[in-house]
Amino acid sequence: MRHSVVLLGAFALFVFVGTAVRADEEAVPVDKIPKAVMDALLAKFPKAKIDKCTKAKEGDDIVYDIEFKEGDRKCEADIKENGTYINYEKAIAAKDLPKAVKDAIEKRYPKAKMTEIMEETEVKGKDEKISAYEVVLETADKKEVEVRVSPEGKILEDSGEKK
């Protein structure tokens, strides 16, 4: 029994540490963010106040994941080392969600409370398109789940799904 408790504790610590910062992610101080990345961020978000930045290798690219505020609005951007945007997210109010997205969430999680909503925009060259809504919910039974929903109301990811 004692051996099982020690193993369980070690596993829990591994899971906790493993989810805190992914092994391939590296924290980046604001003054060490490359000029091309900062220029791209400030061109789109001139009043950005950076809270956190990490970098990771994605395929052949180094990508900077920047969490910031633009005024009171929480935002996030993924920008390649050369200053090319992959995507960005902006916090929005529940009233601004498309009806199809609200309906899909209500159907999957009746009586859940939305605690955070981010509108995700994919960037391909000069084309920008809203690709998804990331919604953090407090379910009726007080569990926190994150759901990613397409603008048309299709559930793309659901952290509350049974695997």
Strand order of the largest sheet: 1-2-3-4-5-6-7-8-9
Distance between termini? 28 Å
Mean pLDDT: 88
What's the shape? Answer: elongated
Order of helix and strand elements from N to C terminus: HEHEEEEHEEEE
Tell me the Rg in angstroms: 18 Å
Oligomeric composition of the shown chains: single chain
Walk me through what this model shows.
It is a single chain. With 163 residues, this protein is α+β, with helices and mostly antiparallel strands. The two termini are 28 Å apart. The chain has a 9-stranded antiparallel sheet with strand order 1-2-3-4-5-6-7-8-9, covered by helices on one side. Residues 1-21 have low confidence and may be disordered. The chain has helices spanning 2-20, 35-44, 99-108, and strands at 25-27, 48-58, 61-70, 73-80, 85-91, 113-124, 127-138, 144-149, 155-158. Helices cover 24% and strands 45% of the residues. A hairpin with a 5-residue loop joins strand 8 and strand 9 (155-158). It is built from 3 helices and 9 strands.
List key phrases describing it.
single chain, 163 residues, alpha+beta, nine-stranded antiparallel β-sheet, 3 helices, elongated, disordered N terminus
Question: Layout of helices and strands, plus pairs?
Answer:
Layout: H1 2-20, E1 25-27, H2 35-44, E2 48-58, E3 61-70, E4 73-80, E5 85-91, H3 99-108, E6 113-124, E7 127-138, E8 144-149, E9 155-158
Antiparallel strand pairs: 1-2, 2-3, 3-4, 4-5, 5-6, 6-7, 7-8, 8-9
